[in-house]
UniProtKB/TrEMBL annotation:
Solcar repeats lie at residues 12-97, 110-203, 214-356. GO terms for molecular function: L-ornithine transmembrane transporter activity. Keywords: Membrane, Mitochondrion, Repeat, Transmembrane, Transmembrane helix, Transport. Pfam families: Mito_carr. It comes from Laodelphax striatellus (Small brown planthopper). The keyword Transmembrane applies. This is Mitochondrial ornithine transporter 1. Belongs to the mitochondrial carrier (TC 2.A.29) family.
Amino acid sequence: MVHSKNSNTGLLDGVIDFTSGSLGAVALVYVGQPLDTVKVKMQTFPDLYQGMWDCTRKTVTSEGVRRGLYAGTVPALAANVAENSVLFAAYGACQKVIAFATDTKDVQDLGILSNASAGFLAAFFSSFSLCPTELIKIKMQAAKEHAAQTKSNVERESAFKITHKILKAEGIKGVFRGIVPTMAREMPGYFFFFGGYEATRLLLTPEGKTKDECGALRTMAAGAVGGVSFWTAVFPFDVVKSRIQVGQMSDGSMFKNMLNIFRNEGCAEALLEHVDVHELADMVDTQLQQEMWTAPLELVDKVTTMYLEGRLGRVFRPDELSRRFSAMYSGWTPTVVRTIPSTAVLFLVYETSRSLLNSFLGTETIS
């Protein structure tokens, strides 16, 4: 992202970034909403579906395309427009802060790490606009499955009615349910998002041209890399956030909720199947008595390694690891399939509209 040298255009830069981010968000939602619905259903009710195509087929069969795959489109638009408008405006401002802190004369000269750090900081602000609207979207997307689990009738409620119910029952705090895992997902996620985007743009820029002149296809490819980087890095946090917001988990410690999923559905379950914790503790205690002056950490590491090598061979086979980690990455496939075209379109619309607005308003840019 490139900004004017003239400090008097700072506010105008922010308006342009805000508007361009909003337009990009609208395009992103209409391209990616069906697979976002599939992702939420698989995250919150993983036992109901065999995979992405099974979830898509069952959703279309039982609920249709508009009421099923495009459920929650209105709050999704609100969420993404709110998030991306604030995100891109804050990203531009944070780039300037990073440039000032690193004594870089121009944001055009910021490195990949600096741009990634600006994305990390910008996501703090966008999280507050995203959390309430995404909460409503997720409740609408998972309404059928939630009703089946609670053995109640499916209520097709509007976004306004859901918001009213939350405010009446929980107050303002209720609409920010899941804010901690939202931040835990957004901030490191956008570090990788903007880092991946800027690094790919730099790599794909033809010799003798600037990143802004790399062309539409290269911009879309860079956006796709940024999106995949985002979701791969932080997907477990998104699983926790979705389950908190749909009402399956308490809005308590994010890491405690993640540990519960890991313990009950993931690799910890496999470890407990093959490790006698008391036996392991007895072995360590015996060795400590016999080798009193040995460095304790080295001793524990040695004994544990000896024990695990004999008991856990099959737990760490690739196929077993894949199965055990699936709980924390349930819904990852439709997310990646969705994010490639979605973020490609997001950045194409953002960069194109930003360039057109700069041209229309006569804003001086640095090439």
